[in-house]
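Researcher: First entry.
Model:
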Amino acid sequence: MGSLNRAMQLIRSQIDHFSDFGIYANNTTTSLHNDYVYKFALPFERIDDPVGSTLLLQKYWYHSMTISFVYFVTVKLLQRFMRHREPFQLNRPLFFWNASLAIFSIIGFIRSVEDTIYSLYYLGLFPSMCYTIHPYGVAAFWALLFAISKIVELGDTYFIVLRKRPLTFLHCYHHIVVIIGAAYGGASHAAHGRFFVTMNYFVHGIMYAYYACASYGLHPSRCQQSMGNIYVGYLIYGSFALLFIKFYINAYFLRPKQRFKQKKIE
């Protein structure tokens, strides 16, 4: 029991460490955000109390890990339950599930991309990474729905298990990491989150639309492509990514320190 208590205290201290956000601390607004106002907004596309919503996320964000734990355990239990049972077909429920998430994701992308384009075009890349979305605006509303939708999308895994389809570790890991990241990003008003939200909405819109069609046996025509070309493509673009990261670190982290040392010597 002593070891368990110490482990729990360590976990609690780490959570407290990561929960020191500073945003809206002591009831003061300290969030840096852009002032973009959407030209068209539906009556419900707003956050009436961004301070209250943010403080709630800051207080309970770590329960995203609780949800992730429950999700992982229930998936394992369901796999054991289905081990000697026939798979469910679930074609119609799966179609409506995927179609609903596809429509939601496409709308989310359309409503989120406006803020992203404005930030990049009028403010530039650096301010877009530093100034978060307007806390009362349309983009904030869809960012909140994005975080909530990550919990809903856990249902994908249960469909896979009930239909006895192959379930990869990457699938579960992706769901868990995105839930925790979305909750923490919302609590800290992570400005770079606008890019992830917009990209994720876009990708999921295409992905769920494809899955909705596939659930009724509708597949796109075959593509003349070999696995060798795909692997070579991964290698090329992966090397580009590594070289860019190396350049970024050298240009913005290592060289400024070297210049500072040279000035100090002079």
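Researcher: Second entry.
Model:
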Amino acid sequence: MSKALPSLGFAGIGLMGLPMCQRLLAAGYPLTVWNRSPDKCASLLAAGARLASHPAEL
């Protein structure tokens, strides 16, 4: 019996945040992301992340 992975939220998709989020997605975690500049989230959205419109949604 396998356990479902918890949903995670991540704020700040910069030099450290982007690779961390990429690894979380690759490991199968459901991920919601937010960044002041939403365009920086494009590659994560293409990989299956969800975009939050405000940090409170994380």
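Model: Note on the second entry: The longest helix spans residues 17-26.
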